[in-house]
Amino acid sequence: MLENALQSRVLVLNRSFMPIQITSAKRAFCMIYLGIAKAVDREYQTFDFESWAQLQIRQNDQAIGMIGKLVKIPRVILLQVYDRMPKKQIRFSRYNIFARDKNICQYCGKRFFRVDLNLDHVIPRSRGGETTWENIVCSCIACNRKKGGRTPKEASMKLVKIPKRPHWTECLNLKPNSPLLKEWLPFLNVVDFSYWTVELEK
Ligand SMILES: [Zn+2]
């Protein structure tokens, strides 16, 4: 039980209140205790360890016994030490391209199962098109076949959306089937939220 509580997930924000990763409650407590981070409540107020430990435990709050009393487990913490943007790059993978395009064929706009989707080079490789975030999209097999070795313009097939590298907050180490906590929502922007809800549907 205690072990479970210490493993529960905590959203880490940088000093600009931007989400950068998920950590465990255990590590979050260490960071708060060391002054590396502050706990954040629903009203965006920040607390050091001492003031956080004074907070009343309400019903539905998860808490653990520490320093001889019950201390509420924070759901969100704010780093105090640096505020640079994370350098983490999103891995350029088949999975992440499907995730970015939400399993939607970028030519006909219909959603498919992943097994029925191909990856398409927008500018064909034979024309020097590169294998990059900006030149690869999901395509259904029919659209892929129709387009063949042509550019979208030559094939008169318009892209649903211009492909881009996904925004870095999408690389939070959330896994499909690990639900977002409601306390995190104010800190995740709406675009990211819809992105992850789509992922969680499957
Ligand atoms: Zn299609």
Descriptive notes:
By secondary structure, the chain is α+β, with helices and mostly antiparallel strands. The protein folds into two domains: 1-87 and 167-194, no CATH class; 94-155, DNA Binding (I), subunit A. 25% of the residues lie in helices and 19% in strands. The strands form three sheets. Strands 2-1-7-3-4 form a five-stranded mixed β-sheet. The protein has a two-stranded antiparallel sheet with strand order 5-6. A two-stranded antiparallel ribbon has the order 8-9. Strand 3 (37-40) and strand 4 (46-47) form a beta hairpin. The chain is elongated, with a radius of gyration of 22 Å. The two termini are 29 Å apart. Residues 173-177 and 190-202 have low confidence and may be disordered. Bound molecules: zinc ion (ZN). Zinc ion binds next to strand 9 and helix 5. Residues 105, 107-108, 110, 139-140, 142-143 line the site of zinc ion.
Largest sheet: 5 strands, mixed
The fraction of residues in strands falls at 15-25%
Bound ligand species:
zinc ion
Q: Which structural class matches the secondary elements?
A: alpha+beta
Q: SSE order, as H and E? A: HEEHEEHEEEHEEHHH
Q: Mean pLDDT, rounded to whole units?
A: 81
Number of helices: 7
**Computed Rg:** 22 Å
| Largest sheet: spatial strand order | 2-1-7-3-4
What sort of overall outline do the alpha carbons produce when their principal axes are compared?
elongated
Uncertain stretches: 173-177, 190-202
**Roughly what percent helix?**
25-40%
